[in-house]
Amino acid sequence: MFFRSSKKPPTPSSYSSLGTDLHSHLIPGIDDGVRTLEESLTLIRRLVEMGYKKIITTPHVMADHYPNTRERILEGKEAVLEGLKGPDGYRGEGIEFDVAAEYFLDENFERLLQEEDLLTLPGNRVLIEMAGVAPASNLHDLLFRMQTKGYKPLLAHPERYPYYTRDFNAVERLKEYGCEFQLNLLSLTGHYGTTVRDQAFKLLKKGLIDFLGTDMHHEQHADKLKEALSDRKVRKVLEGTRFKNAGL
Ligand SMILES: [Fe+2]
Q1: Per-residue pLDDT tens for 43-53?
Q2: Among 37, 65, 125, 139, which is least packed by CB within 10 angstroms?
Q3: How many domains does the chain have?
Q4: Residues 6+ apart with CB under 8 A from 198
Q5: For residues 32 and 225, what is the distance between their CA atoms, to the nearest angstrom?
Q6: How many A from CA of 145 to the centre of ligand 1?
């Protein structure tokens, strides 16, 4: 005989079920994320305290604002790794730290795709983002070209683009073009507004989200992420959905 247990699943007090965070801005001084090594180490510590085991940080690569190169990002990674070895500061025991990038789909990206090796997440995934006013005009073509080069496109925070809120079919269609989706955890709390929150839950409900990410830029984000662990709806998502983060 079977009895249905009345016990609720355990409440997550951390993000440990995700294991890996694959979207953040923790290389000092190269984008709108952390400005100093000290800040970087502080945020790494905060992520470890929240249960993450691996951090793959993703500085912006955006010709107009953050013209970061592969070399600059890799140098930044070395500086952070050195910092983690520092004699006095936080040493990040048990954390794996790596870099990829968040590529803005501009003309520079097309050139990079043509001429260079992109910085990738595991599985040859490339984290991409677009402007808030309109999607890249040649988006479908770019997604196709990325895949012919062996990359797997992963769109950052699809819930934050107003044009996809207005046209849900258009965002659903990106999946048919081989694009994976990464949702920002703080979108679930209303941090970016109620419209973004509603769109985030709609995408989740339809099973379209592959990864959750922090998109952490500064310490307020760390505070909000910690708070989010006591949010009933966030906990339900963490308890009830399997994301691909754990497999990275
Ligand atoms: Fe980001």
Answers
A1: 999 999 999 99
A2: 65
A3: 1
A4: none
A5: 18
A6: 23
